[in-house]
Amino acid sequence: MDYEDIDELEADIYSKNYKTPQQVQSHLFNVVYNRNWKEYLNSIEWDGLWLRHDTEEEKQLKIEKQQQRELMMSPFAKWF
Q1: What's the Cα-to-Cα distance from 44 to each of 6, 11, 19, 37, rounded to whole Å?
Q2: What is the dihedral of CA 21, 27, 30, 35, to 10 degrees?
Q3: What is the mean predicted confidence (pLDDT) over 4-23?
Q4: Among 30, 25, 1, which Cα is nearest to 13's?
Q5: Which residue range forms the structural domain that includes residue 69?
Q6: ∠ CA 7-10-12, rounded to 5°
Q7: In terms of pLDDT, which residue wins out, 76 or 50?
Q8: CB 66 within 8 A of CB 59
Q9: How many domains does the chain have?
């Protein structure tokens, strides 16, 4: 195999002889959890930060920052 024709990432895979993240997840689903998608999804550690709701102070602060940004980016900013 000529490594000059292969991009760096692909050459790295061939040289280190390891599995890609997709291959790892496929192996987990097919072999470890025996294609049971409920157990597989329960095994994943999900990031719940996006579920957190803003407090009233944080909402108001975001609104004020958005309004300030809109005023600064407005074509009429020099008259405000």
Answers
A1: 33, 29, 19, 11
A2: -50
A3: 66
A4: 1
A5: 3-79
A6: 105
A7: 76
A8: no
A9: 1
